Request: fold
Amino acid sequence: MSNHQASATPWWLNQRIRGWIAQLLVIAFVAGFFTFVAYNTQVNMQARGISNSLSFFGQEAGFSVIQSLIPYSSSSTYGRVFLVGLLNTLFVSVIGIIFASLLGLVIGIARLSSNWLLARLAGAFIETFRNIPLLLQIFFFYFAVMQVLPTARQSFDLGGLFFFNNRGVYLPRPVPEPAFWAVVIAFVVAIGGVIWLRRWARRRQEETGQPFPVFWGGFGLIIGLPLIVFFLAGMPLGWSVPQLRGFNFQGGLVAIPEFTALLLALTIYTAASIAEIVRSGILSVSHGQTEAARSLGLPNQRVLQLVVLPQALRVIIPPVTSQYLNLTKNSSLATAIGYPDLVSVFAGTALNQTGQAVVIIGITMGVYLTISLSISLLMNVYNQRVRLVER
Amino acid sequence: MQIVKIVAAGVAIVGMSVAANAHAGKTFDSVKAKGYVQCGVGTGLPGFSSVDSKGQYTGLDVDVCRAVAAAMFGDANKVRYTPLTAKERFTALQSGEIDILSRNTTWTMTRDTSLGLTFAGVNYYDGQGFLVKKSLGVTSAKELAGATFCIQAGTTTELNLADYMRSHHMKYQAVTFDTSDATSKAFDNGRCDVLTSDQSQLYALRTQLKNPEGAMVLPEVISKEPLGPVVRSDDTQWFNLVKWSLFAMKNAEWLGVTSKNVAEMKKSNNPNIQRLLGTSGEFGKMIGVSNAWAYDIISQVGNYGESFERNVGMESPLKIKRGLNALWTQGGIQYAPPIR
Reply:
């Protein structure tokens, strides 16, 4: 009897099928909505005589950009402008993420230090920079710090090699000669050596219980080997030293003030947040773990490195990921001080010169979405690897 | 801030699509229905559009908005202002956020043909120039090879500079900012050697420097910059109203009708003046407003010459000479078609 009843249940009461139907309806609705918006936009733009195509990508842009990581001139195309802006955005974001992580880690640990002064200083740093809007900090570093530096002709001069002025920070730029390749090869060999060293040290520790200072050994290898090769090859490296010629310094390596100010602001603002995340991660590890590790006779640094941080990381990584995303997205504030990022040169200048608002804003949003999802993906993969493995 | 702008642009685009032709051909009607003109102006440029000590917008560009409101409603104060940067201006107009863009915008072929926009006339003939500090010791733009320029982003200025430097085989660097304020501040602080912009703007920005006497405008003018109000090209009636409001101001100056004598002039027996002030003919009707439209403009805003002198000319701190902007009868090129 019950058997008969179950088979008689009409399909529209079946929970699985109903679930599928509901999902399909939602998808159809969302797709329909976006199709409607896209179609309507197209019709309206045509009705108003606003042309809309991607053909502008091949046209000459005709304006100049102050910083580009790839060759660019005012006769380059809008496609090139897009690449220049994208690379500038990625450049400042990647460097910002690296610096903010390091600074955040140091300050987060300092905040928990038993040294009263150090902990208070870290606390003051965090509270100050986390609670001031980022745009104000960018303006502060740009207008109050970078622009009050002296003019090019009166730059701060460190030994005739380093110059600081309101046009940027000028450093000597290394110019490698052909024999420099040997040094590069030595560096690669040293990295291979470190990997081998790690394995060997682990095996030895498992067999004999003797630890080996892998960090310092590896450090010596990576610095030492290329250095020896460098001297053996007769120091195959020239330097291009910045020199004042005409209006400005020529030669050398320059960090423009727009970049420096933006990087400083992004780094410090994000580091303050990361420091709090690091602190909460460390506090989440039960004190018993620390005590247990100490009772094994491990020194403090090893306790932090082997017991506390690995457990703290699983708490730390997800919120830090969103800080990385924030930093990348916040880099678009660059346009306020003239750093040529994607939003400034592509969604700003290129949009205005071509009038292709819909296409350009669409592409820009797509790019930020892609960058954000990529960071998320990478961090999730990393999270999978470091999270606690339950045995 | 920029994210907000992007979101705003995105919302505007979605609005443009969902509103489904709500405005098509109906700007005139919608302005009439809401009872005021939404006017896009600059973010603060003395003489053209800036906020005075009483919190009122004033300037040559602002007067265009006021003239249109006077023609439409008989009241020059029925205007609401939207300050826009150079980068935002066209999207704001295209998406219907504003009804007129009156913001020292250069009339170019691309802008007139491919953006769905139409220029309604020229209220200032300008040209691009260079502002430098006197301490630099430069006297001509030809000596600017290797210099760093401060520019406002998204303007014809950026393109003209690139053309000029390329044709004179000079290398240069350009730092671009969103607002004219940030641009002049960076120039003031020495971030760049040269500030380049339309000459009218250079004179205006110079007054805001820490030491205006220490800066000078170089003699070279490297481009033609006819500046004027812009409307969407989907409503001829609205376009005609804006265009003829501007023409009425120029015709009033030609006929010697000013804000002070306009009441008396109503009794004039000069047929040109009679047609202008609506004492003969039905010219207001032709553009959908009252026949006293030009009378209202002149009595409340003044004629073109009055507006020029008050905002940028000898009665203003800018002290710009009429030059090209004098009427054609005075050696300039400002010329309005007749009302008949």
Notes: The domain at 126-224 of chain B is CATH 3.40.190.10 (D-Maltodextrin-Binding Protein; domain 2). DSSP finds 14 helices and 14 strands in chain B.
